[in-house]
Design goal:
The complex is a heterodimer of chains A (474) and B (1064).
Chain A (H helix, E strand, L loop, with lengths): L13 E2 L1 H13 L6 H27 L14 H25 L9 H21 L4 H7 L16 H34 L3 H10 L7 H34 L11 H27 L8 H31 L3 H13 L3 H13 L7 H5 L1 H28 L14 H24 L5 H11 L4 H6 L2 E2 L10
Chain B lengths: L13 H9 L11 H5 L2 H8 L13 H20 L25 E9 L2 E10 L2 E7 L12 H4 L1 H5 L8 E3 L10 E3 L1 H15 L7 E5 L5 H13 L4 E4 L6 H11 L4 E4 L6 E5 L12 H10 L12 E6 L4 H5 L2 E4 L5 H12 L12 H12 L5 E5 L5 H13 L7 E4 L10 E2 L1 H9 L5 E5 L3 H4 L6 H5 L4 E6 L4 H4 L3 E4 L8 E4 L5 E4 L12 H8 L6 H12 L6 H11 L30 E6 L13 H4 L14 E3 L1 H7 L5 E7 L2 E9 L7 E5 L23 H4 L29 E12 L15 H6 L8 E3 H25 L14 E6 L8 H9 L7 H5 L8 E7 L6 E7 L9 H4 L5 E3 L5 E3 L9 H5 L6 E2 L20 H6 L14 E2 L5 H13 L12 H5 L5 E5 L6 H6 L4 E2 L11 E4 L1 E3 L10 H5 L1
Parallel strand pairs in B: 6-7, 6-15, 7-14, 9-10, 9-12, 10-11, 15-16, 16-17, 20-24, 21-23, 26-37, 27-36
Antiparallel strand pairs in B: 1-2, 2-3, 4-5, 4-17, 8-13, 18-19, 20-25, 22-23, 22-25, 27-34, 28-29, 30-31, 32-33, 35-36
The chains are: A mainly alpha (474), B alpha/beta (1064).
Chain lengths: 474, 1064
């Protein structure tokens, strides 16, 4: 069977600056491009958001008891969802910061989109640590080191405290990074916009960008600094989140491999989510010439690579439980996970996270979009299960056998989780409609570079990009 | 003229026209005045005018108008303030301060509480006039300062919002068909008429029904009443009383006698299904537990212990602490008693072929080896024949006068003048009983099913029920008359050994109730106050020698009359053991009816503390189930918590199965007292069998659970129980498919499958046990081994050893696993002392019970007859507490006295501390449990539940709100009180100044608290005991609570037998 074509280039078709402007910015300026699929997804998103609103209202009215958490399982879906969402955000930061510093030009077509995903995912994630507390109305500010007359400080030894700083820094830097990258594109949109209101609004948000040399200079410097700031964050945020577990004494949590393994897992889950959104959107909005099969192929490879790191983490967990001779660890990692009542979760996790991504060794699977979609869904589910296996499952049984209890979620646990998914979908589709999904100026820059730095040629007429070559992998 | 049309205008012709208006109308039309009827314009104008009696508004001048308006505004403003920002309650200061009352200081009054008629001396803590806590009276022989859960929970019964607070005339259905609220005057009139009918015949149709009574004053009052109506008959009924024990004594000695044990001298004890340690099974249990535990207490590196053999049906406290235990069906107990008697050489006893003869002979040998120190005990539920054989055995062992003491019956209803319930039912059915007065008890609910008591009762002409609750019996009576709770009445009673106590009120009656004593005096036509009657009776009774006033004051102050225990009698055995007949054979599955260890016979089923108290061993709450052995479950194909149909006595009930290790095979235990249909919102928790409402969907969190339908809240096991087979009967059990959730606090979820495995394959020290003989030889070696084992961990520890600056006394606790009997007294004491809320069945099933102390139960060995180890665990106050560093807001911190403190105000509820606690002793307020007691209410009613229940709170302990973590504080409020007292006296806190609530309630003195820095303190000595170990020492948390290892003292000649060998 012949392999499906793999586009050799990161931009295909007949392109010049005008066509790139046309394909991206008309998503905002020409609202007619948003047809039925947009509305379907948006309505799903808004319904999910409504459900989230109900779930939060009921939660604040009744208390955390509407969930299935108990003693000993004091953390369950709440923290599972938190870690899952934080992890999803990681792909965006990795793409925008690390790949920028590594000068990977292929990031240009997907970075905007993934950064937005990062911000929305962190918004979803951030709800959980706050709302899972018994008294969110005080938790919201008692965790910040503000000066008060009682000279009371938060407890800096607590990993939860580190979380507060890690996540809020991450959100702030990601937001700034995203916004800074949007400024030149907002200016492009301002210039193209015919609607008076949109023009004024865009003029404000583009901060008076005129595209002068000095502007570009400042912009490049600022962007590079923020990329430098974001890069350690990619590693630190999920490491710190993993400290919530690694620094405790709970068997199944107290594992030193957690920080790197959590980061790899986060990138793994993040790329799966990027693909989950990118594949349908490039199809609906005909952006195949900008997000090409080449991009998808590369992302699939990253999923494969991080998936292998995650698999290695599972092996290490098991190995050290045995090697340490710690009966509690062994009891948790072997007896409970493989033979215990939650073994279904562990087995599904291995299938989703270890076995399913192995398909990406085969080039055909990386190029068949439905296969990629299916594997990405497996990965998303698997990464959620991984957190389920680690968090509530480890709590159900630890030191004193008398305290062992099962954990069962309630309908409100699912409502909160489903609600955040809806909220995420809603924000993503609003983003698609009202903001440039692909970084316009960076793609133009890429086009310029791909055509051998010859500006004049591009400006005049659309240039036929080289035809995709069959089976070539570079 | 025609007047039919109302709108025709002015009416002419005056009254004539009015009269005319009425003609020609069909049906009844009502009118208020002639004007209205005439429909005059004046009337209509008057009707429609807002201010009909003023002249006109125009007549008011400007000044008056302003005056009126000003005044109206001012008044309106003032009245508006009330209830908005000014309190509406009236606060009246004491004009004259009551003597001894210092606001904020507790006062203690000695009184007594009754359980099944037997009084236990207690001290009631009173705060500013509110009784808030019941604890044992250290001077009282039945208590010695300890107190069982049921008696402690009386305080919640007292504040129970469901107690009936009005006289209700049931025969006159009111708005809700619940009966009409009436008055004492109307009731007196009604009963006066009823008694007047009876008077000419001397009360031939008059019947009174009571429970067991130990109160001399009440017995005297009843006798006085009966003197007035000489032909009236007094009936007494206790559903799970001591009738069999008295009947057994009558068989053995020719007259009913009270049998009292003295375990302080017992060296070898054999229990033939007699749970002498459980307060629900034996009135002397607190004292017995103390004496028995003293006989097992070992301090230092060697010691001796008594030995306990237990033949047990439903697993209970005695079997859990026994050195040898056999699981036997109750029908086999008679054969066992006979075999033991035969082995001991009791004349006429024939050995039963079914028993393990070798074991019986070994036991007999052991019993004979301790002359005067042996005792055989059986349970009150067993037939008189079993009791008679046991008397013969004890006589043969020479136990009489030493370990077994006999006195005249304490129960005043054990005499020829008092008839039983059967006679009353017969008289009701034949129409002889016309006027029935029911005092206490709840026979409509708990009478034997074959009596059909409700039908019989309906044949009486006049039925009055005197009780605390509007329950099933009240519903079947014409009148419901509230009686007082024992905390609000004068009375008296006798303890298990006959010691006399005076009951004094702690507070004026909350409602309209009168005490039974007052009611009888009222019925006898000599109304008087309870105080006058009790004091008057004591004056004439001759209980007190010397100056009456002085002695009386001493008795009221002490709570008991010292030295008033009943005089022992020396009975002569007149039993022909050969003439006894064995129990009726039971075919197939044996259904055992057992008194519930928490809610007794059902009279405490409206008590949330007791409903939520995890029953010993099963750790079940809020319901009864069909309890079966693992083997029976396998053979009948029933899975744990599977839904089953239990048929017995022609009645079928759907319930959950509960697989209980150690339960005899081919038998099923059902606890009595559940499935109430009336009597309060707590006891009528609905089940899936058509009882009203569905409480589960009301409770948040109960919406969705993949394994549960939350069916059940218990079923009425009295429906199975007939007068001919009150203890066990044959029945059938079959699985119907489906699984439900039983609200148990330990075990019973798939995750617990390998408890035993956890112990066997590594050496983690959860429960430490030694064989006594081995321990006596090797104690020093074990101490060394333990030290060496953890030394390496200590040496390799990277963290500094001293992370806190400690100064002042260092608090510590020790818990001796060897004497813990798992009775739950500490759990209830903690609940009462520390304002711990009740969370309800759904929340317990979600594993959110709030008890700060839990009694862990570990099985070891064979599933059919495992050995049990109890381990009470509360916060162990680690010196290096894992909970402290993980709290982001520093809500849990360390004190310089070594306490791990929880700052409720600072807690935001991240629950990280609980996750990191290796002992899982922290409790989280997932919902607003304290203020929302409707969590376990299933019926919405208008009663002021919360304000009343708030009166119960201990003002020294913070009431926790939603979203707060809480845990054991070592009763810090008691520590602080002792600190203040010691400062006032300018001295250090002495050992024994601080007694925690759990320590105080413990009948076996298992828990010891004190300052470990004081090397002379009891706790410091016990911490250094060779048996002392730290729970999870491997984690280096350095708990301040240390546990003391359990010792077992088995008879080496016996190898434990499996039930198969016993039964085949």
């Amino acid at each position: 069977m012949p392999l499906p074509p793999l586009n050799d280039r990161m931009i295909t078709g007949e392109q010049n600056y005008a066509t790139i402007d046309q394909s991206i910015s008309t998503m905002i300026t020409d609202q007619k491009r948003h047809t039925r699929p947009w509305w379907i997804m948006f309505v799903i998103g808004i319904m999910g958001t409504g459900m989230l609103g109900c779930a939060i209202t009921w939660l604040l009215y009744q208390g955390v008891g509407i969930w299935g958490n108990n003693i000993p399982t004091a953390w369950a879906f709440d923290i599972v969802n938190f870690v899952w969402w934080i992890g999803i955000g990681h792909a965006g930061t990795l793409i925008s910061a690390i790949l920028l510093l590594l000068q990977q030009p292929w990031r240009n077509s997907i970075n905007r989109f993934s950064e937005a995903m990062t911000i929305f995912a962190v918004m979803c994630a951030g709800m959980f640590p706050l709302l899972h507390t018994g008294r969110p109305w005080v938790a919201i500010y008692w965790l910040f080191p503000y000066t008060n007359i009682m000279a009371l400080w938060p407890q800096f030894r607590s990993p939860l405290m580190w979380d507060v700083f890690a996540v809020s820094t991450y959100f702030t830097v990601s937001l700034l990074f995203w916004y800074l990258g949007l400024v030149p594109d907002f200016a492009t949109l301002r210039d193209q916009s015919k609607n008076r209101f949109a023009k004024v609004l865009l003029a404000i948000v583009c901060l008076g960008w005129r595209g002068s040399n000095r502007h570009w200079h400042r912009y490049e410097q600022g962007y590079l600094i923020l990329a430098g700031l974001s890069t350690p964050l990619v590693l630190s945020v999920h490491s710190i989140v993993s400290f919530d577990f690694a620094s405790s004494i709970v068997p199944g949590w107290n594992v030193t491999v957690f920080p790197p393994y959590f980061v790899a897992g986060a990138v793994f889950a993040g790329f799966a989510m990027v693909l989950t959104f990118a594949i349908p959107i490039r199809k609906i909005y005909k952006l195949e010439h900008l997000i090409t099969n080449r991009h998808i192929d590369w992302m699939a490879k990253i999923i494969l690579a991080t998936g292998l790191i995650v698999a290695y983490g599972y092996m290490l967990e098991m190995f050290y439980a045995w090697f340490s001779g710690n009966p509690y660890e062994w009891d948790m990692t072997y007896l409970r996970r493989i033979t215990g009542p939650y073994s279904w979760a562990y087995v599904s996790l291995i299938i989703c996270n270890v076995i399913a991504p192995q398909a990406f060794w085969i080039p055909w699977c990386r190029r068949k979009l439905w296969v990629v979609m299916v594997v990405c869904q497996f990965v998303s589910v698997g990464m959620w299960l991984e957190r389920f296996v680690i968090i509530p499952m480890s709590l159900t049984a630890n030191y004193l056998p008398s305290a062992n209890r099962m954990y069962y979620p309630t309908v409100w646990d699912f409502a909160m989780f489903g609600g955040t998914i809806g909220f995420f979908i809603m924000l993503m589709f609003l983003f698609i409609r009202f903001m440039p999904v692909i970084n316009i100026f960076e793609v133009k820059d890429l086009l310029y570079k791909m055509l051998g730095n010859k500006d004049t040629q591009v400006a005049e007429a659309p240039v036929e990009m080289p035809e995709p070559a069959l089976g070539r992998s570079v | 003229m025609e007047f039919n049309d109302k709108n025709q205008g002015p009416v002419e012709g005056g009254l004539e026209s009015v009269r005319g208006k009425l003609t020609g109308k069909s049906g009844r039309s009502y009118w208020r005045s002639l004007d209205e009827l005439a429909d005059t314009p004046q009337f209509n104008e008057w009707l429609e005018d807002e201010f009909p009696n003023r002249s006109t508004l125009m007549q008011i001048n400007r000044r008056d108008l302003l005056k009126f308006m000003g005044a109206s505004m001012a008044l309106a403003g003032l009245t508006g303030c009330r209830g908005v920002f000014l309190p509406q309650d009236k606060v009246v200061p004491y004009v004259k301060a009551p003597e001894e009352l210092v606001p904020g200081k507790a006062l203690f009054y000695a009184t007594a509480v009754n359980l099944g008629a037997y009084a236990t001396g207690v001290l009631v803590e009173q705060r500013e006039g509110r009784p808030i806590f019941i604890q044992g009276n250290p001077d009282h022989p039945a208590s010695l300062g300890a107190l069982d859960s049921i008696s402690q929970a009386e305080i919640l019964n007292f504040y129970d919002p469901d107690r009936t607070n009005n006289i209700v005339q049931q025969s006159n259905p009111g708005q809700y068909a619940l009966g009409d609220i009436s008055t004492w005057e109307l009731f007196e009139e009604a009963i006066g008429k009823a008694l007047a009918v009876e008077a000419p015949t001397g009360g031939a149709g008059l019947r009174i029904l009571t429970g067991s009574i130990s109160s001399p004053t009440l017995a005297n009052a009843i006798k006085a009443f009966l003197k007035k109506y000489p032909n009236a008959i007094w009936h007494a009924y206790e559903p799970t009383g001591r009738g069999n024990a008295y009947a057994g004594a009558k068989l053995a000695f020719g007259k009913p006698l009270e049998t009292i044990y003295d375990f302080s001298q017992a060296k070898v004890v054999v229990s033939l299904d007699g749970d002498f340690l459980s307060s629900a099974a034996n009135p002397g249990s607190l004292r017995y537990a103390r004496d028995f535990a003293n006989g097992r207490r070992v301090t230092g590196a060697s010691g001796s212990m008594n030995r306990l053999y237990s033949f047990e049906s439903t697993p209970g406290l005695v079997g859990s602490i026994a050195d040898h235990r056999w699981a036997v069906k109750p029908s086999d107990i008679y054969g066992l008693a006979m075999a033991l008697a035969a082995a001991l050489g009791v004349a006429g006893a024939t050995p039963d072929g079914k028993v393990d003869q070798k074991a019986i002979e070994a036991i007999a040998k052991d019993l004979q080896s301790v002359p005067g120190g042996a005792v055989v005990v059986t349970g009150d539920q067993h037939s008189p024949e079993v009791h008679a054989v046991v008397h013969a055995i004890n006589e043969k062992l020479g136990a009489f006068g030493k370990t077994v003491i006999h006195t005249d019956p304490i129960d005043a209803t054990v005499s020829p003048t008092v008839s039983d319930l059967k006679a009353l039912v017969d008289d009701l059915n034949t129409g002889k009983a016309q006027t029935v007065l029911i005092f206490g008890g709840n026979p409509v609910y708990d009478a034997p099913a074959d009596f059909k008591f409700a039908d019989a009762l309906s044949k009486a002409k006049f039925r009055a029920r005197f009780g605390l609750y509007d329950d099933e019996t009240a519903q079947a009576c014409d009148w419901l008359v509230p009686v007082t709770h024992s905390l609000e009445e004068w009375g008296d009673g006798r303890a298990y050994d006959g010691t006399l106590s005076v009951i004094q009120p702690l507070i004026a009656p909350l409602y309209q109730g009168k005490s039974l004593i007052e009611i009888f005096s009222l019925l006898s036509g000599k109304p008087a106050t309870g105080y006058e009657i009790v004091k008057g009776f004591w004056k004439t009774s001759g209980f007190l020698k010397g100056d009456f006033e002085k002695e009386w004051r001493t008795v009221v102050h002490d709570g008991l009359l010292k030295g008033s225990a009943a005089t022992p009698v020396t009975p002569v055995l007149s039993l022909q053991i050969g003439s006894l007949t064995g129990p009726r054979p039971v075919s197939g599955l044996e259904v055992i009816f057992a008194t519930d260890p928490s809610i007794y016979d059902g009279r405490f089923s409206n008590n949330g503390w007791l409903q939520e108290l995890p029953k010993p061993l099963s750790k079940l709450t809020w319901e009864n189930v069909a309890m079966i052995s693992p083997k029976t479950a396998t053979s009948l194909g029933i899975e744990d918590a599977g839904i089953v149909e239990l048929t017995c006595n022609g009645v079928t009930v759907r319930t959950a199965a509960f697989v209980q290790p150690g339960h005899p095979a081919d038998a099923v235990t059902v606890y009595l007292g559940f499935g109430r249909t009336r009597g309060g919102v707590v006891c009528t928790v609905p089940n899936g069998e058509g009882r009203p409402g569905d409480g589960d969907t009301r409770s948040p969190g109960g919406f969705f659970n993949p394994t549960s339908s939350f069916d059940g809240g218990g079923f009425n096991a009295y429906l199975f129980r007939t007068s001919s087979a009150p203890h066990f009967a044959s029945g059938q059990l079959k699985a119907t498919g489906g699984v439900t959730t039983v609200a148990t606090t330990q075990g019973h979820s798939p995750i617990d499958g390998d408890h035993i495995k956890q112990f066997s394959w590594d050496d983690r020290e959860v429960v430490v046990e030694y064989d006594l003989e081995d321990f006596n030889k090797n104690a020093a070696k074990y101490v060394e081994e333990r030290k060496a084992k953890y030394q390496e961990d200590r040496d390799q520890n990277l963290y500094p050893d001293d992370i806190f600056v400690y100064n002042g006394p260092q608090w510590a606790m020790t818990i001796d696993l060897n004497t813990c009997i798992g009775c739950n007294a500490c759990v209830t004491a903690c609940q009462g002392e520390n304002n711990i809320p009740v969370v309800g069945k759904v929340q317990v099933a979600r594993h959110r019970e709030m008890h700060w102390i839990r009694i862990d139960r570990y099985y070891s060995g064979d599933t059919e007859n495992p050995q049990v180890a109890w381990q009470p665990v509360a916060c162990v106050h680690c010196e290096k507490a894992p909970c402290e560093p993980v709290c982001p807001v520093a809500a849990t911190v360390h004190s310089h006295e070594g306490l791990n403190q929880m700052v409720y105000n600072r807690c935001v509820g991240t629950r990280y501390c609980s996750n990191n606690c290796p002992y899982k002793v922290r409790r989280f307020n997932y919902l607003n449990y304290t203020d929302n007691q409707r969590q376990f209410d299933v019926r919405v009613d208008d009663k002021p539940r919360i304000p009343l229940l708030r009166m119960l709170n201990n003002p020294d302990v913070t009431v926790r709100g939603r979203g707060i973590m809480e845990k054991c504080t070592y009763c810090i409020q008691r520590i602080n009180e002792a600190r203040i007292e010691s400062k006032k006296a300018a001295r250090d806190i002495r050992d024994g100044d601080i007694v925690t609530a759990c320590q105080q309630a413990c009948p076996t003195q298992t828990i010891v608290f004190g300052n470990k820095e004081d090397k002379e303190s009891q706790v410091a000595k016990l911490r250094d005991d060779p048996r002392a170990y730290l729970l999870m020492e491997i984690l280096q948390t350095r708990p301040r609570t240390s546990h003391l290892a359990k010792l077992r003292n088995p008879n080496k000649e016996i190898t434990p037998v499996t039930p198969t060998e016993t039964n085949s």
